[in-house]
Amino acid sequence: MNSVYEIRNVRKVYKKGKRLANDDISFDVEEGEILSVLGPNGAGKSTLVKQMMAHAKPTSGSITLFQRDVIRHSREVARHVGYYAQEAWALANLTVREAVLYTARLRGISRQESERLTGIWLERLELGSLSDRMIKRISGGQRRLAGLAAVMVGDPPVLILDEPTNELDPIKRRLVWDIVHEKNRENGTTVLLVTHNVLEAEQVVDRVAIINQGKLQVIDSVANLKNRVDPRLKIELTLENGARAGAQAILQQWGTAEAIGDNRLQMLASRTEVGHIVTRITEHLDELACTAYTIVPPSLEDVYLKLGGHVADESN
Predict the structure, then answer these.
(1) How many Cβ atoms are within 10 Å of 4's Cβ, its own excluded?
(2) Which of 44, 133, 157, 292 is the most exposed place for a label (fewest CB within 10 A)?
(3) How far apart are CA 41 and CA 299, in angstroms?
(4) d(CA 31, CA 157)
């Protein structure tokens, strides 16, 4: 598979060498994949993205897009990459329609086709009624949707999306993820996704890179990362009020049970052990005072918390 971005030994130092934002980061973004970059605030994610967009220059190291250095060929970056920043301040003094239309024109699309595509995206993101409103005068969630429409128009081959679902309600968040997934599967669009919403990201990503304290901790497929952290399954039990201590004593006969709430317990079991333990639980439901139980595989959130979900000192 071809690499779209190649990031090599990137180091970024701020404040006259006093703060190291990125520390010797190297990885490739492969053509046609959805790669999620995860990490706490201050991890260095947004700093890295700014360098990938040629908005900042690495202190050392290199970043290439389609084998061309992004700093020396910054116009190529703007032409090939749709960048969805956390705040679309550059568009704030435009109307919603102007923001999408002008972006299409800047990408070399004809006036007539730009008009057509603008209409499509305003309708797709349910922005038609806001088309003549200034972006700075609409809500935060609406601004984000307007920014997304501008990013998507003209089908750039690469998307970099920095926290795309912030400030959106659950229905609009689902819409955004559906669009990202559709662009990737139908058009082969390469997507770099920066997000804190680990559970939502898990539904669409192919690989995950975890950054913490400026360093790349790990990069791999979701499945490989889950197995690396803990391949066991969780058995979670919900109990009647006051039954936790007694139930925990019973469960300890079959493995280790730990409390995860006032009336909830959790056991970890290998895939070969799960069937046996679940059989025991179902045989002792009344004795356990168990009202419900579920079997939960490892999640991307588990990976994140294990490998990179620590609190950082400074915001990104």
Answers:
(1) 22
(2) 292
(3) 21
(4) 9
111 Cβ contact list (under 8 Å, min separation 6): 105
- Hey, where are the domains in the chain? 3-222, 232-297
**Residue range 232-297, CATH number:** 3.30.70.120
Answer yes or no: is pLDDT of 278 > 90.
yes
Q: State in words which class domain 3-222 has.
A: alpha beta
Give the Å distances, CA to CA, from 291 to 173, 256, 284, 295, 296. Answer: 32, 20, 11, 14, 17
146-155, pLDDT tens digit by residue? 999 999 999 9
> Structure tokens of 281?
């639980």
In the structure, what pLDDT confidence band is assigned to residue 300 with cuts at 50, 70 and 90? confident
Q: Is 197 exposed, middle or buried (0-12, 13-18, 19+ CB in 10 A)?
A: middle
CA distance 141 to 111: 28
Q: CA 15 to CA 20: how far, in whole Å?
A: 9
Average pLDDT over residues 88-117: 91
Q: For residue 137, how many C-alpha atoms fall within 13 Å in the half-sphere facing its CB?
A: 9
- Tell me the C-alpha distance between 51 and 45, whole Å: 10
- The label of the residue with tokens 């952290």 reads 229
Which residues have a Cβ under 8 Å from the Cβ of 18 and sit 6 or more positions away?
Answer: none
